[in-house]
């Protein structure tokens, strides 16, 4: 598979996160000559949080992991690539049970402390008998790095995705590392992908839950490739608590400010990498919407533009047909006045207050459309609502 033309030059150098161990293995269940299993183990007393797909056809591993996430505690996360174990009925539930039971016996932990993620083909029963023989080697060889982990979870991705940051909590430096996979079936309603973010910070489960929810809203919930929401969306945030910071238990503690900024930076980086790897993608488009009645409306407008097949074809064809942006805004039918709409492309004014600007010159717009990075700015009124969407 050809690497996306929008891919970064290299995978970043991600440091180890104290209290978090990684292991990968190649089961050969679907892919040959590459790892397709990832085991993440967490130090005792680690806390976790997760956000998951809102799809009515959520996969069996999602339903299992959602329940564990509510407890805020986990000992491990096991992931298989190549089979989503989605729309597999009772066989899917049994496969999850068999996976965690087999792994728990080796890890010597409670099966209800093991979260599961799967990605790949929908509707095909998962043969745990092919995977389980590799669990012992996973447990015995927990020395993989983040790059290997990111490679092991890929399906239609053309490159591995990673990001990291560090921050200070009351004078103590803490580390955050994240990996993600996703290329097709990408649209916000959680966002369609798998993501794992680990930190050594000492943070309670309620703190993790709030931080993850907020960061997810401004990252994975703000991307779209094809408007399709998957059955297996899962984002995991893990905190080993091995850093020496004072344990934070209040989501509103000011000591969290730097951590929140760092977490959002990591997740936003990963989200944009997924858009860059969109199936067939040749351009990364950033859409900024301002002046809406509220953030929800602004996000809705941004996604309408980002998901429009006609807007996409104009951009792919490098055609400065900005009327398609007007169409995408108007088709929502949410009461936007045409006279309030202004549009800029590549920093150049195109329309103001419901009309094309006087002395409009298409030349710089057409030149901008030839770039790999496209910027669209839309104002729809004088409200406080604003949003940024990547497509």
Q: Strand order within the widest sheet?
A: 13-12-11-14-10-15
Number of helices: 11
Q: Which percent bin holds the helix content?
A: 25-40%
How much is the average pLDDT? 94
Indicate the structural class: alpha+beta
The tally of beta strands, per DSSP, is 15
Unreliable sequence segments: 188-192
C-alpha Rg, in Å? 22 Å
Largest sheet: 6 strands, mixed
Order of helices and strands: EEEHEHEHHHEEEHEHEHHHEEEHEE
Q: What proportion strand?
A: 25-35%
Morphology call: globular
Distance between the termini: 21 Å
Report on the architecture of this protein.
This protein is an alpha+beta fold and 391 residues long. 29% of the residues lie in helices and 25% in strands. It has eleven helices and 15 strands. The strands form three sheets. It has a six-stranded mixed beta sheet with strand order 13-12-11-14-10-15. A five-stranded mixed beta sheet has the order 3-9-8-7-6, with helices on both faces. A four-stranded mixed beta sheet has the order 1-2-4-5, sandwiched between helices. The radius of gyration is 22 Å and the shape is globular.
Topology:
Elements: E1 20-25, E2 37-42, E3 47-52, H1 60-69, E4 76-83, H2 89-107, E5 114-121, H3 128-131, H4 135-140, H5 146-152, E6 161-169, E7 172-181, E8 194-199, H6 205-217, E9 234-239, H7 257-276, E10 284-292, H8 295-307, H9 309-316, H10 323-330, E11 342-345, E12 348-352, E13 355-356, H11 362-368, E14 373-379, E15 385-390
Parallel strand pairs: 4-5, 8-9, 10-14
Antiparallel strand pairs: 1-2, 2-4, 3-9, 6-7, 7-8, 10-15, 11-12, 11-14, 12-13
Helix pairs in contact: 6-7, 8-10
């Amino acid at each position: 598979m050809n690497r996306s033309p929008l891919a970064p030059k290299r995978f970043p150098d991600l440091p180890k996160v104290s209290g978090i161990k990684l292991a990968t293995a190649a089961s050969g269940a679907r892919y040959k000559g590459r790892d397709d299993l990832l085991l993440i183990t967490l130090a005792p007393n680690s806390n976790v949080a997760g956000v998951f797909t809102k799809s009515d056809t959520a996969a069996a591993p999602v339903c299992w992991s959602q329940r564990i996430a509510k407890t805020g505690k986990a000992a491990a996360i096991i992931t298989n690539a190549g089979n989503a174990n989605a729309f597999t009925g009772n066989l899917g539930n049994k496969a999850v049970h068999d996976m965690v039971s087999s792994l728990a016996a080796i890890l010597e932990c409670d099966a209800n402390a093991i979260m599961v993620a799967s990605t790949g083909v929908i509707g095909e029963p998962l043969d745990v008998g092919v995977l389980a023989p590799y669990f012992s080697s996973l447990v015995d060889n927990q020395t993989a790095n983040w790059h290997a982990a990111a490679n092991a979870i890929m399906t239609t991705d053309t490159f591995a995705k990673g990001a990291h940051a560090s921050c200070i909590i009351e004078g103590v430096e803490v580390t955050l590392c994240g990996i993600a996979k996703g290329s097709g079936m990408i649209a916000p309603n959680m966002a369609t992908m798998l993501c794992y973010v680990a930190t050594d910070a000492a943070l309670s489960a309620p703190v993790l839950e709030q931080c993850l929810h907020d960061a997810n809203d401004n990252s994975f919930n703000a991307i779209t490739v094809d408007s399709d929401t998957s059955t297996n969306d899962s984002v995991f945030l893990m905190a080993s608590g091995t850093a020496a910071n004072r344990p934070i238990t209040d989501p509103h503690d000011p000591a969290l400010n730097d951590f929140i900024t760092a977490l959002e930076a990591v997740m936003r980086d990963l989200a944009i990498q997924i858009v860059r790897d969109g199936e067939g993608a040749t351009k990364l488009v950033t859409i900024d919407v301002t002046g809406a009645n509220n953030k929800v409306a602004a996000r809705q407008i941004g996604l309408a533009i980002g998901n429009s097949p006609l807007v996409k074809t104009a951009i792919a064809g490098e055609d400065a047909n900005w009327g398609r942006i007007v169409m995408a805004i108007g088709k929502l039918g949410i009461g936007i006045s045409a006279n309030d709409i202004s549009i800029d492309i590549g920093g150049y004014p195109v329309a103001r207050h419901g009309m094309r600007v006087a002395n409009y010159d298409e030349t710089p717009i057409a030149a901008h459309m030839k770039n790999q990075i496209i910027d669209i700015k839309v104002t729809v009124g004088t409200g406080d609502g604003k949003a940024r969407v990547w497509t």
